[in-house]
């Protein structure tokens, strides 16, 4: 059976179908992460992965700019300043990223405490990655399911 996109009409006819979620743009997902410092609620796959893509781009561009400044003969203070700003940014996004990961786990029907599995050597990070990639669990037995 080919994949069929759920529309509002299908959702009204099929109570088990997932309601369509609003599309989120990359920078909007990043802004939402920075202002939503809470663990309650759910985060869609799109919101979660666009946020991480945005953070990767910011960190990669900053690191490349810092390396270029340090190797091309620019004053060392500029390159070091870029790396200090990058370190401060990384420290700033730790808590919002943790909140986003917990909300993504809620979308799976898992408790936020599952985040700690990432500290299990060798397989913990892979298990957390798989949990964040899986589609939402929109069943009534999900404690974070909205009726």
Large-scale geometry: elongated
Helical proportion, percent range = 55-70%
Spatial separation of the terminal alpha carbons: 28 Å
Integer count of domains: 1
User: Based on helices, strands and strand pairing, what is the structural class?
Assistant: mainly alpha
Uncertain regions: pLDDT < 50 for 5+ in a row?
1-19
Question: What is the percentage of strand-forming residues?
Answer: under 5%
Number of helices: 6
The main sheet comes to: none
Mean pLDDT: 79
Gyration radius, rounded? 19 Å
Count of beta strands: 0
Order of helices and strands: HHHHHH
Short description:
With 147 residues, the chain is mainly alpha-helical. 57% of the residues lie in helices and 0% in strands. It has one domain.
Present the secondary structure layout:
Blueprint: H1 8-13, H2 26-35, H3 45-71, H4 76-92, H5 94-107, H6 124-133
Helix pairs in contact: 2-3, 3-4
Q: Overview of this structure, please?
A:
The protein is mostly helical and 147 residues long. The protein has one domain (24-133). It has helices at 8-13, 26-35, 45-71, 76-92, 94-107, 124-133. The two termini are 28 Å apart. The model is unreliable at 1-19 (pLDDT under 50).
